[in-house]
Specification:
Layout (H helix, E strand, L loop, with lengths): L1 H10 L2 H7 L4 H24 L1 H8 L3 H23 L2 H8 L2 H12 L6 H18 L5 H26 L5 H16 L11 H26 L4 H8 L2 H13 L5 H33 L1
Helix pairs in contact: 1-11, 2-11, 2-13, 3-4, 3-5, 3-10, 3-11, 4-10, 5-9, 5-10, 6-9, 6-13, 6-14, 7-8, 7-9, 7-12, 8-14, 9-12, 10-11
């Protein structure tokens, strides 16, 4: 749980770094992927030595599955932040636990509580409020990309849980390099970045991507898929908070209403889960 909480805090800084960069999304993805992948690779080598290099080179099908899902989440996340309000993206990401629970039920047959299903429906209503009146074509594309990103990361979470015996840290490194590779044909300013841009991109890759993704894949191996995603929703209130603090960007009224429904559903599901666990513990102790 501590690993996933730390990952959520690191992830929540993405809008802050994105707003600091006056670059197209593909250029940001290219440089961020290089720095993030380099950090995770160095982490593997320092902690595991040759075994870490072997995991990176000999990644199996499960590792490539996680890497591809993670890459899809990466290449849709940054454009979403640039096309729509940060609070919209944050709230849509917050529905990840319910998406992960649904995928885990289909794929792994992990049981899903009725309260989680009800909370998921309430969260879906919150998303409908946000999507119901987009601020234009760009805003609608941003919301759509945020939805794709949420599904991809939820599927990645379930895949990590399904293949928890594999080295998913190596898959995290591969996903960053794969994201950089995919970005090359579309990036418009690869050679135009300044020293300041490189410094920001390095911090973006090292802290937000490298540290966040490494901590998450380590922590999510030890938790049920829905619970890992639920803890990760801590980034939801933090994402707009950093942007508000630095750039005074305020959420829209629809985002506040829809966000209240989503976060209320999440809190209610946490309370229901704790109540169920406490009741089960009381019965077992009798």
């Amino acid at each position: 749980m501590a690993l996933v909480v730390a990952a959520a805090i690191a992830w929540s800084t993405a809008p802050f770094f994105t707003r600091l960069l006056d670059l197209d999304s593909w250029t940001i993805l290219f440089w961020r992927g290089l720095f993030g992948g380099g950090f995770i690779t160095a982490f593997l080598v320092l902690t595991q030595g040759r075994a870490g290099v072997r995991d990176l080179v000999e990644t199996g099908q499960s590792g490539w599955l996680v890497a591809c899902l993670s890459t899809l989440g990466m290449v849709t996340f940054i454009p979403a932040l640039q096309l729509t309000n940060v609070s919209n993206v944050a709230i849509i990401i917050a529905t990840g636990p319910f998406v992960a629970a649904g995928i885990a039920w289909i794929w792994l047959r992990e049981s899903t509580r009725l309260s989680t299903l009800i909370a998921g429906l309430i969260a879906l209503c919150g998303i409908a409020i946000i999507v119901g009146n987009p601020g234009g074509a760009a805003d609608l594309r941003g919301v759509g990309l945020a939805c794709v990103m949420t599904v991809a990361i939820a599927a990645m979470t379930v895949a990590v849980r399904r293949h928890k015996q594999s080295s998913m840290v190596a898959a995290a490194a591969l996903s960053n390099f794969l994201g950089s590779l995919v970005s090359i044909p579309f990036a418009q300013g690869l050679a135009d970045v300044t020293d300041h841009d490189l410094a920001v991109l390095a911090m973006f890759g090292l802290f937000q991507v490298g540290t966040g993704l490494t901590l998450f894949v380590l922590g999510s191996r030890l938790l049920p898929s829905g619970q890992a995603s639920l803890i990760a929703t801590l980034e939801t209130p933090l994402m707009p908070f950093w942007v508000w603090l630095a750039f005074h960007e305020l959420p829209t009224q629809r985002a506040l209403i829809g966000g209240s429904l989503v976060m209320g559903a999440i809190v209610a599901d946490i309370i229901a889960d704790n109540w169920t666990r406490a009741r089960a513990g009381a019965k077992s102790s009798r």
